[in-house]
Amino acid sequence: MIFIKKFFKEYEVVIFIFFAIIISIFFYYDLLKDRVIITLLISMFIYFFKNFYERFLDRKQKNFELKQTYYHEFLKVYTEHLSCVANNKPNNEINKRFIIETVRLLIYASSEVIEEVERIKNNPTSTKPETILKLIRKDLELNDIKEEYNFKIFKL
After folding, report:
1. How far apart are CA 112 and CA 92, in angstroms?
2. CA dihedral for 35, 38, 40, 43, sign (positive or negative)
3. Where residue 143 falls among pLDDT bands split at 50, 70, 90?
């Protein structure tokens, strides 16, 4: 029941259970010989499945847009932080923003991205920027990237 409530709204759970009871009654009394009833049941099933799938896609799109926005902010601060580290010019404001963005990653990022960012925080020069970019693309499910693709554009 918890699984059903997770994906359906309250009224849909009640309607779903109601239709399940009606279908079981039809099977019990062998009323499924009538084509109208079968057509009605199939159309109701398709209607509920379509609504469920549309809401699933909407949630997935909203989640993607939110992650994309947060990752964009993180990457802006990350590149500023890398340039400060590369030039040996510590900047407290950029470091503060970098820490805030890394903490915010805990809310929306995958565990792989969080682990890589922890490595970056501990030793910024040891990791390559393309690894975090690949992990972010993987988390955003932008899997069309090729492994042999070269990120030399991003060298600092």
Report:
1. 27
2. negative
3. low
